Amino acid sequence: MKNLKETTPDTSPFxxxxxxxxxxxxxxxxxxxxxxxxxxxxxxxxxGLGLRVIVLREPGGTTFGEKLREAILASKEALHPAAEAYLxxxxxxxxxxxxxxxxxxxxxxxxxxxxxxxxxxxxQGHARGLGAGTILKIHELPPLNFLPHQTYxxxxxxxxSFERQxxxxxxxDYFESENKDFYQKLIExxxxxxxxxxxxxxxxxxxxxxxxVFADIKNYVNKLLDIPG
Length: 229
Ligand SMILES: Nc1ncnc2c1ncn2[C@@H]1O[C@H](COP(=O)(O)OP(=O)(O)O)[C@@H](O)[C@H]1O
Ligand SMILES: [Mg+2]
Prior knowledge:
The protein is α/β, with parallel strands linked by helices. The chain has one domain (23-225): P-loop containing nucleotide triphosphate hydrolases (Rossmann fold, 3-Layer(aba) Sandwich), CATH 3.40.50.300. Helix content is 48%, strand content 13%. The chain contains eight helices and five strands, in the order βαβααβααβααβα. The protein has helices at residues 35-48, 63-73, 81-104, 117-127, 132-138, 158-168, 180-196, 210-225; strands at 23-28, 52-57, 109-114, 150-155, 201-205. The chain starts with 22 loop residues before the first strand and ends with a helix. The model is unreliable at 7-11 (pLDDT under 50). The chain binds adenosine-5'-diphosphate and magnesium ion. Residues 35-36, 114 line the site of magnesium ion.
């Protein structure tokens, strides 16, 4: 299987080069793992260091992407795994072109994405059965071969996920309505992604209290940005 490079390519005929002082980060993990919670804390921390922080969610982040998000998450009919994979890739390509790459070409900018390629590996690759190799193949085409510099995978178990989702409340969407087997496969899928990208993906125990989880994230981001801890 041909693998994508572990490092983010800095030039492509399709996009402007990134500023060396700018970084692309992502959060991954199943529902309730704490992505939104930790992302907010990280944004405040990085802004406190004088950095410009752009927060994005996937799918979405552009008018076109938000429409795709609505179409996928509100779907009452099961989509073919390939249809899911290409819809997410399409939203991602547009987000890269319209927002991420332009922002990263500016100085001292941190783009943080709530979910990115590893969710595609976990959901469509592993849980839906397309295989991680298929997902990586779709991402060989620029601009999709542009990967985050660092990814925080918040690892929790099924029980905690369901407990926290219950507390959070709200209506269940297309993926949230899936059963426990599906969630178990997602966990395996995120593990698979972690093994494919061992230096980019930082696996963090998300079962602990918020402050402990953030301490790990802060350590990793400080190392990446060369900030004394
Ligand atoms: N470390 C934690 N310990 C306990 N509860 C948490 C923790 N992190 C988040 N939560 C709570 O769990 C729920 C889901 O968190 P959220 O950040 O929305 O997860 P995600 O964005 O990954 O779905 C929220 O109600 C949040 O307040
Ligand atoms: Mg969230």
